[in-house]
Each structure stands twice: as C-alpha cells, then as structure tokens.
Specification:
It is built from one helix and ten strands; from the N terminus they run αββββββββββ. The protein has 138 residues and is an alpha+beta fold.
C-alpha cells in the first residue's frame, strides 16, 4: 500500500511541476509576443514615403501581402458592412506596431500606419481571424 502512495505522490509532483513549467513558458511567450523586443529598430520618419492601400472586402484583405520601404505609409480600409477589429501580430498574440495594437473600424473607415520598423509583420481582423494580411518593410 505504501509504494502505491509513494508512486502517486511522485506522479502528483511531476504533474504539478509540468503544469508550473508550462504556465511559466506560456507567460514568457505571451510577454515576449506582446512586448516590443525590436523597439531599437524603429525609426523616426521625417518624411512620408509611398502610400500602400489594403482593402477589406468580402471578408478578405486585398492585397494579402504588401512590400514597402521604411517610412512608407499603410492605409487599411474596411469596405465590408461588418465592424472589423484590425490587430497587428498573429491572432491572440497581438503586437504593437507604430504605437497601435487594435483598431475598431466600421464600413468606410481606415487605419493609417507609418511603416517605421523593418521586418515582416502580420495583421488580421481579431473578430474573424481568417481575414488577414502581411507586410514587409525593408
């Protein structure tokens, strides 16, 4: 009987330890995903570059990918009848870009973003995660 209790106790310690480890790992990943770790790469744009347009229509982003240069501008316009919650980063792992994380936009409204950080980035409608796009800034 005692070996069974000892085994159950060891198993309980292993399970609790694994849960604690997973919790810490999840917290650390969430922290890194939601806190800008590349803020040093942001530039202060003195002049605007080219303007790039993305339209949300029929539940899709068009174009789905935009290639741009530093200090260009990205304008995302909602042409659907439903409200969109434009968010940067992967779904449920929102990140800040140009000081923005989420923007509620009704039909006909737009979000303007100064492309002040180099790299590849995702954005999506948080209310309909299939509505997504990417942009690359060089």
């Amino acid at each position: 009987m005692k070996p069974v209790k000892l085994t159950a106790g060891i198993l309980a310690v292993i399970v609790v330890g694994a849960l604690v480890f997973l919790g810490i790992h999840h917290f650390a990943k969430d922290y890194l995903d939601t806190h800008d770790t590349q803020s040093k790469s942001e530039v202060a744009c003195k002049q605007k570059g080219k303007t790039h347009y993305v339209v949300i229509k029929d539940g899709a982003m068009s174009p789905q990918h935009t290639s741009a240069a530093l200090c260009d501008v990205l304008i995302v316009t909602n042409q659907d009848d439903k409200i969109r919650d434009l968010a940067f980063g992967a779904h449920d792992r929102h990140q800040m870009y140009d000081g923005q994380t989420e923007n509620m936009i009704k039909r006909g409204q737009s979000v303007t973003v100064s492309l002040n950080k180099a790299g590849s980035f995702m954005f999506h409608d948080h209310l309909q995660k299939e509505t997504k796009g990417t942009f690359t800034v060089k």
